Amino acid sequence: MAKLYFNYSTMNAGKSTVLLQASHNYRERGMETYLLTAKLDDRAGPGRIASRIGISATADTFGAQDDLFARIEARLAFGGIACVFLDEAQFLTKDQVWQLARVVDDLGVPVMCFGLRVDFRGELFPGSATLLALADEMREVRTICHCGKKATMVVRMDAEGRALTDGAQVQIGGNETYVSLCRRHWREAMGDREVTADGC
């Protein structure tokens, strides 16, 4: 039975690596996959999903105006798809998440979305919020804070290494400006908590 999946994490947790490995597993067994990524994120080049460990694959791109149900339905006309893999899912619109739900329900094709849950201010991305509401299954791709606890938040740093508390929600590139932290250390970085003597 087809399902809508949301695989979420913070920055630099390996979401694209997991996506590419899962797609490879399907293809290795002779099953076709369809890869999509956000048009505005061209860090690896236009229409490319790339992992920090060096693996990559070509993908079709989507923008905010694209009807993803129509796009996937048109792709199906050229042959079967075992699974749709979508990277940078935080950039989906609410309507596009509903379109993906229709792909699952009406076309019977599983859709696996990978993306960030929250931005550097601790706020949900619109696409992620809708996926949290509609996904049949959610999986966390885990990474760790410098203290060893699970990182669930991310801060955006300026050139002097200070955490930014304001700015545009979307900033493409500059992965080195983001640091994944546990909630406690995110609050500390954002000025919501004082550091104790032991640094915790």
UniProtKB/TrEMBL annotation:
Catalytic residue list: E88
UniProt keyword Translocase, yes or no: no
Reactions listed under catalytic activity: thymidine + ATP = dTMP + ADP + H(+)
Self-association and partners: Homotetramer.
Binding site for Zn(2+): C145, C147, C182, H185
Encoding gene per record: tdk
Subcellular location(s) of the protein: Cytoplasm
Domain of life: Bacteria
EC number, UniProt record: 2.7.1.21
Range of residues in the leader sequence: none
Keywords in alphabetical order: ATP-binding, Cytoplasm, DNA synthesis, Kinase, Metal-binding, Nucleotide-binding, Transferase, Zinc
GO annotation (BP), single: DNA biosynthetic process
Amino-acid positions noted as binding ATP in the UniProt annotation, renumbered to this chain: S9, T10, M11, N12, A13, G14, K15, S16, D87, E88, A89, Q90
This protein's name: Thymidine kinase
